[in-house]
Each structure stands twice: as C-alpha cells, then as structure tokens.
Amino acid sequence: MQKTILVVDDEPDIRDSVQVILETNGYKVQTAVDGDDCLKKIIEFKPDLILLDIMMPGTPVAEVINKIKDIKIAFMSVVRISEARKKGLCKQENIVDFLQKPFNVSDLIDRVRLILEK
Amino acid sequence: MQKEFKIKHLLYSKLNRKLTLLFLIVGFIAPTLAIFYFYTVAVTSIPEYIFAEQISLLGVIALITIILISINAGIIGFFVSRSISKPIKKLYNATLELEKGNYETKVDIKTNDEIEELGHAFNLTTATLANMEQERKEIDNAKTEFLSITSHELRSPMTPMKAQLQMLKEGYFGKLSKKQKESLSVIIRNADRLDNIIADFLEISRIEAARLKFDFRETDIKHLIKDTTAFMRGFANEKNITLAEDIKELPIIQADPDRISQVLRNLINNAIKFSEENNKIEVSAELKNGYIQFSVKDHGCGLSSENQIRIFEPFYQVENSTRRKHGGTGLGLTICRGIVESQKGKIWVESQLGKGCKFYFTVPLKPVIDIEPIKILFSQKDVMERKIHEEFKTVLGPLGEVEFYELKNKNAFSKDDLIKYIDSLTNLYILYPEKSNDFKNKIREIFGEEKKPLVKKKNEILNYDNLKEVIKRN
User: Which residue from B minimizes the CA distance to A14?
Assistant: First the structure.
C-alpha cells in the first residue's frame, strides 16, 4: 500500500523539493506550511509519517508535537542539535529521527524508507 | 575603596615624609637663627655681670624653645603634607583600579584646590572611558549577532539549492549528457564548499557568543582516541601514512567526546594534508598539571615562527601554501581554538621549518559548564607581540626595546627562539638564572603554556657563583 507523508516547512522551495523526491520514490506526499496547517492536514490525510521543520513561524513546534501522539514524526533542522537536546525531544515515542539540513537526497530517502518499514 | 587605617601607611607616603622633614628643618633653623641674633644683640647691649648670671638659664630656655618650635613645625608639616598626599594616594589607587578595567571607579576629593580639580577631571575621564567601553561591547555584540543571523539566513537557501542540484544529477528530471553531469559536479562541489564555510561561520558566531553547545558525559579518552584514529585511518591510507597512538594511563573524565573528537579530527586531517606520502603521524595523550594534554605530531613541511602564531587566525594562509590544493574552509583551527578555550584549555603548536609540526591541546579533568564568550576573530599575533614587547621592556629596560626590534626583524618570535635568546643572555651573565627563569615563564605564559619550575643544574649553580665572584672582584 502506498504510504502517505506530510511535509511541513515554511519554505515553499524546500516543500516542493522534498515532495518531488519522495513522490519519485513512490510515496504519496501532502504539504503543510506551518504547525497549525499541519494539525489540520493530519485529520484530512492521516499520514504515516510527518517530516516536520523544527523552526517555523506560528504555533511553536513543541506545542504542535504535543497534540500528535499516534503518527511518526521526523524533525528537519538547519540548526545543529546537540545529542542532549535530541534526547530531550525524543521523550515522545513517535519522534523517530532528526534530519540535518541541508540533506543529501539519497540519505533522505534511505531514512524515510527505514522509518516506514519498521 | 578605603583601606583600613594603619600607621605604616601614613609613614609610607614619600611625599608626606619629605614635607614633614622640610618643616622640621625649617622649624629648627628659623628659631635657631632668631635666638642667635637675639644672643648677639644681648651680648653687646646687656652689662656683662648680669649676662653671666643668666647665661645657663637663657641657654636652657633657648634650647627648649628651639626644640618645641621644631616639633610643632614638624607636626604642622605632617598634617599639611598629609592633606596633599592623601588625595594623591586616592587618585593613585583609583588609577590602579582603572587599569584593571574597573570603569566604575570614582574619586571623592574635597580639598578645594587644584587637586580637587584634578580629581574631578579624573572622574570625567573615567566616565568617558566607561562610555567607550560600553559602546565597544555593544558593537562587539552587534557583530556577533550579525554574524549569527547572516549565517542562518545564508544557510536556509542552501537546503533547496543542494536538494535540487542532487535531484538533477541523479536523473530525477531526465537523463543528462556527460558534459552536463561534469558541469553539475562542479556546481555541487562548490555549493558544498560554500555550505561548509557557512556552517563554520555559524560555529564561530556560537563560540563568540558563548552559545557553543557541549554535551558532557563520562568519557574514556583512550577509547575516544582509538575511535577517532580508526576513523581517520581511512583518509591516511590514501597517502599511505601511518597513524600511531601513544596513550598513557588516563582517568575517565566528564567531557564532550564529540567536541574532543572534532578537534582531534581537525588536527589529524591537517597533519595528513601537510604530510608527504609514506610518512608517520603520532597522536598522544597524557595527564599533565590537572589537564589531559593531547598532541598530534607530523613530519611535514613545518611552520615558520610567524605562521606558528598566526595559524589559529581565521582564513590565515601560510605563504606559498598548498591550501588551495587541499581545500578546507580556513576556519578549522580557529574553531578548534574556540572549542578548546571555551573549556579553559589551551591550544598551541611547536614547529621548526622543514621538521614538521606538533600541535598540542589540553582538556580539563572537570568540565567548564558556564561557558564564556571567546574572541577568536581578531588577530592573536598583535596581542602576543605587544605582550612580548612589554616583557622585554620590563625585564631588560631600554636594551629590551632595541633587542625586541632586532628579533622582530629576524622574525625570531617563536617560543623556542625566545627561550634560546634568553638562555644566551643568561650565559653572557646579563641575566641571573632566577630572573631568566621568570622571564622564560612569562614568555611561556604568553604562548599559552604552563610554568616550569627552576631546576638548578650543577653547572648553573657554578655559573651563578662565578658571577658573584666576578662581581666581588670588580
């Protein structure tokens, strides 16, 4: 069955790029522009994985993830995140990975594949 | 800052002593002259028989008068001069405070004369300095903030740019010709390089703003070095370079293994870059003076004294360098310095041209949690040169000035050059061994190294005795 991925990023170019990459590799992709939009789209599309930018305008990401309990989340971040902070964020079971921006295309696919196969 | 009252302090004022003595002398001479004059008048005008009867009594009275007057004058002198020396002492103490960088210093002098005016002028100057210092801090913060924001802003477009380039190259939008692929490779390589520079900029802005992140945990240094060298061996093998380790017994400490590894990788990477093929690189670690001291030694081209000081500056290029060939952002060592110094460690290099380099850095046994901002963007060399200049002037006096510029022209400013120079002075009996050891320690301190105690060798003691003999005979 085709898996659905929700890409949440405030930058349209990043959204579009990630969308094309994932679609080419056989996933169904929806996009959201910020945290609030993300929460709306979840109900609508019921994605298997959310790729969530860690810094976005609007509702803080920390609040957004509190409301998502049953969908896997992978963070995308342009800021390097220390191991300590990662541990802090990983308290929620559904947070499964951190993607460092700028990412490698092949690395992105490998990671997404791994997460969705689990 | 008011010191507690001590009689010693009162007597230690030279000005006070001088003026008191002056009053005493005046208080002694003036009545003596007056009485002598009175005496000569009396001798000539009073009949001799009356005079002879009264002479002893008159003598005693005269003597007592003279003593009383001079003591009085001395006491008055003491208080008059104290009213001058006290505010001067106040000003002196305030100036010392100012020198330490305490711009809040104010003096409170109410003598209603020129000294009060001087105190007032001093306060105005301090206020101006305080303003300038405040301004300097603001500009500095603005610089760091600007660097941080720009780096972030520069980095965000890199994500879609690099993603789209890779998609192009990997054929997401159709097959590419060989020429197109080659062109894309060039673009990608340079985009990567740009991204590395921006990432390094961000790191530097973090170091400068004390926002560098450390994640302390129990670390087995031996393990850490083994892992790092194993990782770097992949790169070393390309040039058939041997990576050897020499690790002494080390305690397990609280440290950030990722950061230590980052510094080590950087130093080893440099060593590989600047080594010929089939060479050897040695990595070592030992416990020394409450720090763990790491070192990375290569047998490459080495560094001149000038370069040894400046190598940690951002974007510093070694002359005739093959850096272009080697790539790199030119910020690696600067970041290493930032990381090491954020933990109150030291990083330095020992080298001789043509004989390879040995880089050292130290990590404390207890981690520094409260990280202070470190200025790594301005030239370290000028600061060091200024410090060396100061030392030369204080130790050698006017001779030091001349010698300093001579050494500067010879470009003999590496630590080893200076130590050798000081030894030569000691051998010429220009400096005593103790003094020369102090001098050497100061130089070592400037180069960021620990002090070494004076080890009296047998022949050194002999030299010292010889020197005493020479002085005695003359």
Answer: B160
